[in-house]
Amino acid sequence: MSATPHLRSRPETVVWGFLAPDVPPVLRIASGTTVDIDTVNALCVPPDAPEAFFERHRLELTDAARDICDIVKTVPKGVGPHVLTGPIHIEGAEPGDVLEVRIHEVEPRAPHYGVNFTRPGAASRPRATRG
Fold it and tell me: Are 110 and 64 in contact (CB under 8 A)?
């Protein structure tokens, strides 16, 4: 039995914004392979002093925090706030195929913290109403 691949969230394995068709895969796997995938949230972490963000909030610069610091300092920020790990190439998959993804487990990475924010106009989109 082969080991489960682990895709870390590092500057060379993430994009900041969205996964466009021209982004090369960072991992190639066979269909049915289980993969451990790290993710990070860089929201509100300033790219010019990311370590200071964690120090100010008394969070250790380990694991996810270290990954975030490395990412925000080196990965170009694209459209949108999200840092995405991937993409992953599935051997044999072709454009138009439907892929099934099963999430077996979600485990928070240390240090454990959360960020919440609002921005002007974010909640003011028109909503459909029923008459």
Answer: yes
Give dist(CA 70, CA 64) in Å, integer: 10
DSSP string covering 91-103: TT--TT-------
In angstroms, rounded to a whole number, what is the distance separating the alpha carbons of residues 13 and 55? 25
pTM of structure: 0.82
Per DSSP, the residues of 13-54 read GEEES---TTSPPSEEE-TT---EE-----TT--TT-HHHHH
Domain ranges of the chain: 6-90
Alpha-carbon gap, residue 87 to 67, rounded angstroms: 17
- Using alpha carbons, select from 131, 14, 127, 2 the residue that is nearest to residue 68: 14
Region for 40 from its dihedrals, namely left if φ exceeds 0, alpha if ψ lies in -120 to 50, beta otherwise: beta
- pLDDT tens for 4-44 read 999 999 999 999 999 888 999 999 999 999 999 999 999 88
Distance CA 120, CA 84 (A): 24
* Residue 67 contacts residue 41 (beta carbons within 8 Å): no
